[in-house]
Amino acid sequence: MSESESFFGDPDPIFADKELLRVSHLPEGDRIIGRDQELQKLANAIKDAQRGGTPNNVLIYGKTGTGKSLCSKYITRDLTQAAADNGIKVGVAYVDCFQESTETQTVRTIAQALNDPTQTDITVPHTGVSTSDYYRRLWDILDARLDVGLVILDEIDKLEDDNVLMQLSRAAEAGKVTESTLGVIGISNKIRYKDSLNERVKSSLSERDFVFPPYDANQLREILRSRADAFREGVLDEDVIPKVAALAAKEHGDARKAIDILRYAGEIADEHGDDTVRVEYVDEAHDREEQARLSELIAKQPEHSKYLLQALSLQAQEAPDDDSAIPTKDIYSMYELVCERNGVDPLKMRRVRDLLSELAFLSLIEQERKGRGKGKGAHTVNQLVDEPEVVVEACKSA
Ligand SMILES: Nc1ncnc2c1ncn2[C@@H]1O[C@H](COP(=O)(O)OP(=O)(O)O)[C@@H](O)[C@H]1O
Ligand SMILES: [Mg+2]
């Protein structure tokens, strides 16, 4: 390599602005495709906040990649601006409840997001404060500097207890805040989330609820097209976007999946030293996306679920091709070995059964009840949904 050459190579031959293909990228309203109705309903539900009134609490359901997080962030930002034009101060706190799953973490995150210490003289330290003190500071912050606080609780089903929902959804009514008011937007991928709540929380939290339907191939195509300027002009083969959209539509219309596959296709072209993103790269991009999604999903599982997946993978690899459905009892013995290798104590069988059902719920494995023959009762067999090699790989990187 000569001295003048950079290790980072020439300007990117494929991407003009890769940020447009990041999940966290928040497109402008006119670039949000096929969600006019949902945005309008959300706007109606929270519109009282525009004049300083109390917004309705909202629950939003829908599968992953249906635009729930995007629309919630967009509509609250839009509301904040509209309210500012009326001289009303709205603050928005976004909480990823997977990251902040305890009551204390949630309240702290909200208080920190809504605070501005130069205006309130209130601090929200990371440690050394009790949960009830975090609440007190949050109410003080709201009253001191805002007319309305809006809290987005994303992946709300990951919260460890209901108390924070009770506190937030009834703050105004319970007189915790007097100079301001508060609204909650809860988001969940689990359509039955509401069933798990106690009646009081349920009725105050879900004054309105909405379901976001999956996108069809046309909408996905449009979503991808509206981000085509992530690529340099002319590098994207014309069949790439339709193919990516068709693949993602087949698997429950997930916009995030579609955008990820498109980005991987560009990266693969780059790795081949090609200056064109060809339709041939899309299948490999799809595989890469699956692997990444699986790693991400597995990474979120408790430690022992990962050991169970490893145990099941090991057994599936040993099993003859035609029979990779493994009885729970057999998984358990392999699981004990995996635990030993990792220097941890195995959980009891009962708990293992629970973890396996949770893995089945997430479609990481499939379960089936089988009869053992006359008078011998039934037992459960378990099977990986993905290839064992892929799962082992994902457990490693998780
Ligand atoms: N209607 C849409 N128009 C444009 N981009 C979208 C649309 N819906 C989703 N996206 C994009 O797809 C990705 C996944 O959307 P997200 O809101 O995170 O889905 P969810 O929260 O339902 O899982 C994000 O990058 C988002 O910007
Ligand atoms: Mg989301």
Automatic annotation (TrEMBL):
Residues 309-395 form the Cdc6 C-terminal domain. This is ORC1-type DNA replication protein. ATP binds at residues 66-70, 215, 227. Belongs to the CDC6/cdc18 family. The keyword Nucleotide-binding applies. It comes from Halobellus limi. One of its GO terms (molecular function) is ATP hydrolysis activity. Pfam families: AAA_22, Cdc6_lid, WHD_Cdc6. Involved in regulation of DNA replication. It comes from the Archaea. PANTHER family: CELL DIVISION CONTROL PROTEIN 6-RELATED, ORC1-TYPE DNA REPLICATION PROTEIN. Gene3D superfamilies: 1.10.8.60, P-loop containing nucleotide triphosphate hydrolases, Winged helix-like DNA-binding domain superfamily/Winged helix DNA-binding domain. Residues 54-216 form the AAA+ ATPase domain. One of its GO terms (biological process) is cell division. Keywords: ATP-binding, Cell cycle, Cell division, DNA replication, Nucleotide-binding, Plasmid.
